[in-house]
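Dear colleagues,

As part of the handover before I leave the project, I'm documenting each prediction I ran so the next person doesn't have to rerun anything. This entry is a single chain, and its sequence is reproduced below.
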Amino acid sequence: MRIILIGNYTLDKQESMIRFAHMLNQGFQEAGFHTEVWHPVVFFGAAFKSTKSGIAKWMGYLDKYILFPIVLKVRLGKKRYQGHDIKFHICDHSNAPYLKYLPYGKSGITCHDVLAIRGALGFADAYAPASRFGKLLQKWILQNLKKAEILAAVSHFTLNQLKDLSQSVTNNGKNWVVIHNAFNAPFFSMEAEQYHPMLIAMGIQPNDAFLLHVGNEHPRKNRHFLLEILEALGDKWHGKICLAGTPLDKKLLEMATRLKLTDRIISVVKPSHEHLVALYNGAEAFIFPSLSEGFGWPVIEAQACGTPVIASNFQPMPEVSGQAALHEHPQDAKAFARAVLSLGDDDLKHKLIKDGFENTKLFSVKHMIDSYLKLYNIK
């Protein structure tokens, strides 16, 4: 049995999807299967380092949607890819248009979220507005995604949203299931003497109490809300908030200045994996007030590091946390502030940590790979 994984266009630099494809590839190999990873070829976009914007983005579209389908047809015309002992899996739902070029009955796809699709269709709660072309692109992706015979959604929430968008499509013969993501890198508890030097290198002193947020400046990540939490805490908590990920945007910095919280904000831009693990371990709590997610990897990453989690009560965060977290409305700063203060109760804090460790056992790579093999009826 051979498994061909269709990965993402490398110049799009979608790090989480690159890690996901690598995780599937390694997991299948460790299970004893021969695998190959096919990425859309880089030709028109070769002159650019990234195809995220401008003319480079359009060159990337030519590579992904014009050139690569031709490459697929040529490859699949070869005898070695026409046997019964081969399966194809598209690692990212945004590549759903490739499904029509792959052999039906032997090909499937992972749906990580439908945020961009719902945003293009006008759903404000997706927090993903689309351009005129973006709307056309996402509708095209949805039309192809609906046709998938074999599909794994990364959460029940994502699967239900996809089904809501596919009500006019018959489910006869379709095999759509939920397979939770596994950890795409190791996350673990560290001793203080191990993570303190790394925190100091990031500008955090050993006696600095801080809350951690991991993410970017996208509106759905709700970064500005973190300052509202800090303001709501007032004199009852004197720690800081560390924002790890992309640089702080101008509006957030202006808000921090207006609220006189500038000296309580720590920014760590794109920390290495080792430094990210250190941040999780050193934090008093991990704060994740996201307004919209397909899965929410940081929730289980924090739990695996033994860090209490306070997250949005919007799905799929409670699903992913296994209820081993405190969940509050992501627009109620006072509720989040009360949750932070509640961690002063050692019994509650230790219970969250213990239950969090237990929850993370559900997200092993082996468990995920076994689920994919079952999806394809591979024994």
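The two ends are 10 Å apart (CA to CA). The chain has two domains: 2-182+364-375, 192-362.

All the best with the project,
I.
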